[in-house]
Design a protein that fits this description.
The complex is a heterodimer of chains A (about 500) and B (about 300).
Chain A: H1 2-24, E1 28-33, H2 48-57, E2 62-64, E3 70-72, E4 80-83, E5 86-90, H3 105-116, H4 125-128, E6 131-138, E7 141-146, H5 153-157, E8 183-189, E9 193-198, E10 211-216, H6 220-228, E11 234-235, E12 248-253, E13 256-262, H7 272-280, H8 284-290, E14 296-298, H9 322-331, E15 338-344, H10 351-364, E16 368-374, H11 376-384, E17 392-398, H12 404-412, H13 424-435, H14 439-456, E18 459-461, E19 463-471, E20 475-476, E21 491-492
Parallel strand pairs in A: 1-10, 1-11, 15-16, 15-17
Antiparallel strand pairs in A: 2-3, 4-5, 5-7, 6-7, 8-9, 9-10, 11-19, 12-19, 13-17, 13-18, 14-19, 20-21
Chain B: H1 2-30, H2 33-37, H3 44-54, H4 60-73, H5 86-121, H6 126-140, H7 143-157, H8 173-199, H9 202-209, H10 214-252, H11 258-267, H12 271-299
Helix pairs in contact in B: 1-12, 5-6, 5-8, 5-10, 5-12, 6-8, 7-8, 7-10, 8-10, 10-11, 10-12, 11-12
The chains are: A alpha+beta (about 500), B mainly alpha (about 300).
């Protein structure tokens, strides 16, 4: 009988310990991601799940403030130009990797050479395509060389995660990441979860949260339920209509811009007045309020967010003015003309709804909009078709470099993968900006390009979509313009 | 018997071959992984390089012969999306789906048999009408919605079960129930109607008349005769669960099985992984069918298997 009593006591004590244990581990968060990383090698894939985890394990040479300004991270200062194609990077001293390897010039040179190696075949190569090599100058100084003058190099270094020279050659590296960052790897149960713990020897500010657990839930409804059931502390891509139901939500201007590419070379949209009319005809404010519940801002007549390099603050959105649109159409003799509008469904948030709403606005201004929604593959065929361009093609552009070059080369510049104009002046401006290393001059070139494209109305600029996150009651996080989920910036109650 | 097995295996191989060829052709006709997998703003040169890397720049007949060789070696190559052997992914995910199917359909079977029998004993009675009503409801409710409903009730409101994942045994309850319900509904209806038919047969009346115990007449004589159509349906339900429901149920509950993987592979245009999954599914279907044929023979030894 006595033995049983002891057993009871032990049991109670164990339960009590379990409870206090749970309290002590109170500073942990669970983050639900939409997809599981395919690898945890930080340099290999272009993979949002991988990035979300590794952004906390690795440091980059440069980073961004929550508002998007480039600031030093593993570098002690912003890189400086030695000559037109050589950038000097000075590194922080006394930083080591989680396994004890030293973070120094050798590590950075190794990281650069690893990612640009054609044999390595990194999917992230488009971020580093201009880099030709890196050379150690002294233990804490590195020279990075580029093909031609490359003004975007600092933005590129914001992508360069520094990997340990020894361990990154280990076959297990992709499952056991080792960085210099505020969190270090604990374990990865494939299909289930990834666990991280705080790196108590971190060189920067010590984060408050001790443990991080990542779960992978593709279905948005289930992510939402998990947040409401108290299983998750943070979920991404919360649908705007659910912001009222979750414990807490935050929203911040994101990197995505839905636009309509107008064909300036052929058809009724060849006339600039028609293209302008198509801009005047759309009530962007109403789209932001009606479709996105206010979680979107009207794009200021350019394919850039205010935080991007090249944003021209003097260029504003075309106001909603049906009368003006009708007048322009009349001048151009295009009343009642038919405009084909190509879109897709289910790829981007509210893609189909946006296309249909725009078509309805055009209809109101006296344009006969012919909406054609294609399955994504077929849609891509039309977006990339260089021979026959549809009058209007809807696309959502996303720009992780926060620099005009990427979006403008793809959509603004004649011959770009999704462009529908043959404006030589615009192309010259974009080419010139690509290799202009003087920051002021470069900004001015983009300002001109933005203005030119705006006046010519090569696009119907619609919105700048906000990222919406659902948070548990206990989590505090202001969010970031670059959409990185940095746990070091989060706090729990 | 030996000849029968051999014939079924040959038939099965033909089916598997046909399915894989169709998948090979269809995936290459409708999709282009290069376009879908690279960022929209990638240049033509980057696209061409990627296509070459995937081997998709080769003529389709060359790809096809390679593919045939792959099947023979059971090695489909690396998944385009996960960059590890497709069969490795299949073998990692399949056990979880088999577990979910076994628990789900097992549950449906165990509940459907007694419930169907009891309903059949008094057709038109209260229990019978309730059973029929609930079954109809179970058949009409979309599984996707049912899963979310379970989550809202048991995980969000009552907080007694987890919303998603597969970390502990508790995690299987809601997905298994969701998988079980439509199968349960169909099975109950079939058990009920087969039993009603059998209970009205002369031999049942005779058995009762000569004083055999009730349980023996219903549970052994009538049930064995009613079992054949029921077993056919159970086999069919297992196939549907493995190759169909698993996609929906695993998506809703983030259950990391083969169904969820299949839908992710399709979304990402991962031809290699889709092929490996369809191939595995085809084999499962053939195997289940052969197993069902054997079960018929066990239940009714008079059956000729030709």
């Amino acid at each position: 009988m006595k033995a049983y009593r002891w057993l009871w006591l032990t049991g109670i004590m164990m339960v009590a310990m379990g409870v206090t244990g749970a309290w002590a581990a109170g500073s942990s968060v669970t983050i639900a991601l939409g997809s599981e990383p395919t690898t945890l090698d930080p340099q290999l894939r272009e993979d949002g799940g991988e990035r979300a985890v590794n952004d906390n394990i690795y440091d980059t040479v440069l980073t961004r403030s929550p508002k998007g300004d480039l600031i030093p991270s593993l570098a002690v200062a912003m890189p400086t130009l030695v000559d037109a194609t050589t950038w000097e990077v000075k590194l922080r001293s006394g930083v080591s990797f989680h396994n004890g390897e030293k973070m120094n010039a050798d590590a950075v040179v190794h990281s650069v050479q690893r990612i640009i190696d054609p044999e390595f075949n990194s999917e992230q190569i488009s971020f580093f395509s201009t880099i030709t090599g890196a050379k150690k100058v002294d233990d804490l100084t590195v020279h990075v060389t580029t093909k031609g003058p490359d003004p975007i190099l600092p933005s590129r270094l914001y992508w360069l995660k520094v990997v340990p020279p020894q361990h990154s050659q280990d076959a297990k590296f992709a499952e056991m990441p080792v960085g210099t960052g505020p969190y270090q790897m604990v374990g990865w149960k494939r299909g289930q979860s990834i666990e991280l713990k705080r790196n108590d020897t971190y060189w920067g500010t010590k984060p408050q949260i001790e443990q991080v657990s990542y779960r992978f839930v593709e279905e948005p409804g289930t992510r939402l339920a998990g947040l409401m059931a108290g299983e998750f502390d943070l979920i991404t891509n919360l649908l705007p209509e659910f912001t009222q139901q979750v414990p807490k939500s935050i929203h911040i201007l994101g990197l995505e811009h839905p636009i309509i590419i107008l064909n300036a070379d052929k058809g009724v949209t060849k006339d600039a007045r028609v293209r302008q009319a198509l801009n005047y005809a759309v009530d962007k404010e109403a789209l932001a309020k009606g479709l996105f519940e206010g979680f979107a801002q009207v794009a200021e007549g350019q394919l850039l967010s205010p935080s991007f390099f090249g944003f021209n603050p003097e260029v504003k959105a075309y106001p909603y003015d049906v009368a003006k649109a009708k007048e322009l159409l009349k001048e151009a003799g295009a009343e009642g003309a038919t405009v084909e509008l190509v879109g897709t469904s289910g790829r981007w948030l509210k893609d189909r709804e946006l296309v249909e709403a725009v078509a309805a606005y055009w209809q109101k201004a006296g344009i006969n909009a012919k909406v054609r929604i294609f399955e994504f593959n077929e849609y891509l065929n039309r977006l990339f078709d260089r021979k026959t361009r549809a009058d209007g093609i809807f696309v959502v552009s996303s720009n992780e470099l926060l620099d005009a070059d990427k979006s403008f080369s793809a959509y603004y510049q004649a011959g770009g993968i999704g462009s529908s104009n043959s404006d030589a002046n615009l192309a010259t401006l974009i080419d010139a900006a690509r290799s202009e290393t003087d920051v002021q001059k470069r900004a001015s070139l983009y300002h001109q390009a933005v203005k030119l494209a705006h006046d010519q109305a090569y696009f119907v600029w619609l919105l700048n979509i906000e990222d919406v996150y659902g948070l548990s009651e206990r989590l505090n996080w202001p969010g970031r313009v670059d959409a990185r989920l940095l746990v070091q910036e989060m706090m729990v109650k | 018997m030996g000849r029968f097995i051999l014939r079924r295996i040959i038939q099965g191989l033909i089916v598997i071959f046909g399915v894989t060829v169709i998948v090979f052709v269809v995936t290459r006709m409708v999709g282009d992984p290069v376009k879908v997998m690279l960022p929209l703003e990638s240049t033509q040169e980057q696209r061409a390089a990627f296509e070459k890397q995937l081997g998709l720049d080769r003529p389709i007949y060359v790809q096809f012969f390679d593919f045939m060789g792959d099947i023979a070696r059971l090695d489909f190559g690396d998944s385009l999306w996960q960059h590890r052997p497709a069969m490795e992914i299949v073998f990692e995910k399949l056990p979880l789906t088999l577990l979910l199917t076994a628990v789900g359909i097992g549950l449906a079977f165990l509940i459907a048999i007694p419930l169907g029998i009891v309903a059949a004993l008094r057709p038109g009675g209260l229990l019978d009408r309730t059973t029929v009503f609930v079954s109809l409801l179970g058949l009409s409710v979309p599984q996707f919605w049912l899963g979310l409903l379970f989550i809202v009730i048991f995980a969000v409101q009552l907080r007694i079960l987890p919303t998603s994942g597969a970390a502990t045994p508790k995690h299987i309850i809601l997905p298994a129930l969701t998988m079980a319900l439509p199968a349960l509904a169909r099975l109950v209806m079939l058990v009920r109607s087969s039993m009603i038919d059998e209970l009205n047969q002369q031999y049942v009346k005779t058995s009762f008349a000569k004083g055999l115990p009730f349980a023996r007449v219903v549970g052994v004589h009538a049930l064995r005769n009613a079992a054949l159509p029921v077993m056919t349906l159970v086999g069919w339900e297992v196939i549907r669960a493995l190759a169909g429901y698993s996609v929906v149920v695993e998506t809703v509950f983030a259950w990391p099985g083969i169904g969820l993987t299949a839908i992710q592979a399709i979304q990402r245009e991962d031809l290699i992984l889709v092929q490996a999954i369809v191939f595995t599914a085809a084999i499962s279907v053939v195997l289940i069918n052969i197993a069902m044929d054997f079960l018929y023979k066990v239940i009714d030894p008079r059956l000729k298997l030709n």
